[in-house]
Amino acid sequence: MSTETEPRLLKDLFGPAMAEKLARLVRAAHPGFPAEAFVADVAPRLAPLELKGRVAALAAALRAHLPPAYPEALAILLKTLGPPLPGTEGVFEDGWFALPLATFVELYGLDHPDESLAAMHAITQRNTAEFAIRPFLVRHPERTLAALAAWTRDESPHVRRLVSEGTRTRLPWAGRLPQFIADPAPVLVLLERLKDDPSPYVRRSVANNLNDLSKDHPELVLAVAARWGEGASPERRQLIRHALRSLVKQGHPGALRLLGAAAPEVELVALELAPARLRVGERLTLTAVLRSTASRPQLLVVDYRLLLPGAGRAPRSKVFKLRTLTVAPGETLRLTRRHSFAPVTVRRLYPGPHRFELQVNGQILGGAEAELLPAED
Questions:
Q1: CA-CA-CA-CA torsion for 185, 191, 196, 197, nearest 10 degrees?
Q2: Contact 299, 261 (CB under 8 A)
Q3: 177, 164 in Cβ contact below 8 A?
């Protein structure tokens, strides 16, 4: 007897079962659709592919089995969407079938920008079109930016989020947008309209967009954050903190000053790692004890930096958030964090010494080392 379980990997959502689901949906919208031929064509080709390859293969098979005229094929696909999601919860749970539709628009719709932009407006209310819109920003920048400007006042938070998420210069899993890296002014015009959006879902995307821009234009982003911080609501202040996170991790003094974090007056009493020897796949506990030496309350942004071996033993580093808090004069803090050495796709782990350094308001106060051993066979 078999039981259904949650897929372990996102790519597993785009296997034969997804091909069959798309076939049913499209045939219901267009009875002439050759559902069996579509499934027989694409299902056997999905297994060796990764996520984006699977989604692209499904989109290509839809193109091959739908009418050759793009507007006609697109109209059929849009009939499969069903009602928009009522809220922001579940957008990346219930609407995954729409991702191949967005990719269909991305791959085949560039010669039909008006129809394609309207389709993305609909698709993003079921899943996302943040990847699909990027080629249109490159090929049809004026037309696409005009649509995005109008969408900043759309009633759907999904559409408003598409404005900020689709224009991110360093959107994960997507190619960069070099024209906005060179000149972020068009993006900042859009973000200005969204900085006080009523939806936290949208405001977080605005913060992520600014965080991306800070990697190429730190002083510009700091100027925007300073201006936005004047008379800011608590919600906007939270947006600014999230937008400056990469600069704060770098210890950028301007970002820290904006958040009210001055040079720290604090002593590192102890920094302990337990266990000090562990294997790939295990966790250690970091414990830091800090004592304020200031005569007044102070804001402390406490992070830890991990220096770890890379390929060929070239060192790498990554900063992790620990706590941001206000401490009283003479107060002693005890902070703990469990750090996992489980393998992840975005960062390969190599055995060897791993140094943990405590960073407070951008300053390194001390460090300790743990030895990472290979995973047991």
A1: 160
A2: yes
A3: no
Whether 221 contacts 248, CB under 8 Å: no
The C-alpha angle with vertex 298 and arms to 292 and 299, in degrees rounded to 5, equals: 115
For 41, the 3-state DSSP assignment is: helix
In whole angstroms, what is the distance from residue 130 CA to residue 107 CA? 14
Kindly report, residue by residue over 162-205, the tens digit of the pLDDT: 999 999 999 998 889 999 999 999 999 999 999 999 999 999 99
**Residues whose CB is less than 8 angstroms from the CB of residue 249 and which lie 6 or more positions away in sequence, other chains included:** 303, 319, 321
Helix (H) or strand (E) holding 355: strand 352-360
The rounded distance, in Å, linking the Cα atoms of 354 and 370 is 5
Coil vs helix vs strand at 164: helix
Strand partners, 327: 298
The residue with tokens 């009602």 is: 83
8-state DSSP, 375 = P
Q: Give the E-state strand segments of 202-297 in sequence order.
A: 266-274, 277-279, 283-292
- The SS3 assignment for 326 reads strand
| Residues in CB range of 349: below 8 A, 6 or more apart | 280, 308, 341, 343, 372
pLDDT classification of 312: cutoffs 50, 70, 90: low
CA distance 90 to 93: 5
Both tokens of residue 23? 């076939």
Count of CB atoms situated within 10 Å of the CB of 64: 13
* pTM (predicted TM-score): 0.86
For 162-184, give one letter per residue: b (16+ CB within 10 A) or e.
bbbbbbbbbbeebeebeebbeeb
Distance CA 236, CA 243 (A): 10
